[in-house]
């Protein structure tokens, strides 16, 4: 669906102001200055409230300037940032439910035949938004996206290669559950420049995760969070809706070495191997290396489950062959490692797995170092039975 054909319904008209009785002024709580500033920043303050203080924390663009991010890379990230603001607006718009519904039966057959899920209109729109902003950055040679069977070649002398899942968890949009965009950035392999374009595109996109120069995700939730690593720590920026800027709110995130939360779709318990069942049974009962009973949290939206794990610690997993190595597991593992955590397929570090196919799937485990090592010590944690589940 082209972007121009999306019609967002106008908001319902409010009754005229004069018909509504004014609130009893004397009962209005007085806003503290801090609250006023926060409300003003959120664009929600009463006009008479004190003006927002200028935030001292840097914006994403200022951060990249201060950190000495190469200019071409900063331009590229600035374009991703712009695209994600548009996706955030679409995901939160009154038209989002229509955009999240699968198209007529039979559509998306090509994607399904290629081992991908049938895309929803919002997946396709998000892909279009990301691709066009990467194209206009002028910095990208090739993009490998979940929504395209093959990598898209953009520009022969673009210095970077981008891998992306433009909108993960789009099945959740209709019920306003968080979604996210994931991306990874590599240098273009100049030694491949003389190969035919299809081969060049493919090999550039299948680089090992160890060669990533930057990776990030954008979480579309109650706040829109842009989390990124350039290989020197993991940092998260929160969208300030009054200025349209992403403000540094979580510098140098350190995932706690041990958490108390596990995140998995445990309706699949009976399809799990013995090792994984034992691990989950053990930590639930507080009988593991950490003598606390773990709690379960599962949003079923990869970026949201990963974001919570990054901040609170613990483990987030999908033990069956479902998530994609190139544009989901690799970028999130890079961010986890940069925050002191670990990403694995249950046996090996994700970043050390050489991709062989663009849409390659694998079991994915992400989280706190101590929790991850304990989990892996059970050996048999990859779910081999994968019947495909309807929901
Ligand atoms: O059905 P499962 O195994 O719980 O998988 C859920 C996972 O799949 C995803 O929805 C991604 O799958 P899709 O690409 O089909 O949307 C993740 O957001 C989520 O973590």
TrEMBL record:
InterPro entries per UniProt: FBPase_C_dom, FBPase_class-1, FBPase_N, FBPtase
GO CC aspect terms: cytosol
Region (Disordered) location: 1-31
MF GO annotations: fructose 1,6-bisphosphate 1-phosphatase activity
PANTHER family: FRUCTOSE-1,6-BISPHOSPHATASE-RELATED, FRUCTOSE-BISPHOSPHATASE
Record-stated family: Belongs to the FBPase class 1 family.
The protein's name: fructose-bisphosphatase
Biological source species: Lolium multiflorum
Highest classification ranks of the organism: Eukaryota, Viridiplantae, Streptophyta, Embryophyta, Tracheophyta
Coiled-coil residue windows: none
């Amino acid at each position: 669906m082209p972007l121009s054909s999306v019609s967002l319904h106008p908001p319902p008209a409010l009754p005229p102001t004069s018909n509504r009785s004014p609130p009893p002024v004397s009962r209005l709580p007085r806003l503290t200055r801090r609250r006023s500033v926060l409300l003003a920043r959120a664009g929600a303050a009463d006009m008479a409230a004190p003006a927002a203080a200028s935030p001292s924390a840097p914006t994403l663009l200022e951060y990249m300037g201060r950190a000495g991010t190469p200019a071409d890379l900063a331009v590229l990230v600035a374009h991703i940032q712009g695209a994600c603001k548009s996706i955030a607006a679409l995901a939160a718009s009154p038209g989002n439910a229509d955009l999240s519904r699968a198209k007529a039966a039979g559509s998306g057959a090509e994607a399904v035949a290629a081992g991908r899920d049938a895309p929803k209109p919002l997946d396709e729109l998000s892909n279009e938004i990301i691709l066009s902003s990467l194209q206009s950055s002028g910095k990208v040679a090739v993009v490998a996206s979940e929504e395209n069977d093959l990598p898209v070649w953009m520009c022969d002398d673009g210095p970077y290669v981008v891998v992306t899942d433009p909108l993960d968890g789009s099945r959740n949009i209709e019920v306003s559950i968080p979604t996210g965009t994931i991306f990874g950035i590599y240098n273009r392999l100049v030694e491949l420049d003389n190969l035919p374009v299809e081969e060049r595109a493919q090999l550039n996109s299948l680089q090992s995760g160890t060669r990533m120069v930057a990776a990030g995700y954008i979480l579309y939730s109650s706040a829109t969070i842009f989390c990124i690593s350039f290989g020197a720590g993991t940092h998260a920026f929160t969208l300030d809706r009054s200025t349209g800027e992403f403000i540094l709110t979580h510098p140098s995130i350190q995932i706690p070495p041990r958490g108390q939360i596990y995140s998995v779709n445990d309706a699949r318990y009976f399809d799990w191997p013995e090792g994984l069942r034992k691990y989950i049974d053990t930590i639930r009962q507080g009988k593991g290396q950490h003598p606390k009973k773990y709690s379960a949290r599962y949003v079923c939206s990869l970026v949201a489950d990963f974001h919570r794990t990054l901040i609170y610690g613990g483990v987030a997993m999908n033990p069956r062959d479902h998530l994609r190595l190139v544009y989901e597991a690799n970028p999130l593992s890079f961010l986890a490692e940069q925050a002191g955590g670990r990403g694995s397929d249950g046996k090996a570090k994700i970043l050390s797995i050489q991709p062989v196919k663009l849409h390659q799937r694998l079991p994915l485990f992400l989280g706190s170092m101590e929790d991850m090592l304990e989990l892996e010590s059970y050996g048999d944690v990859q779910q081999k039975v994968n019947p495909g589940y309807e929901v």
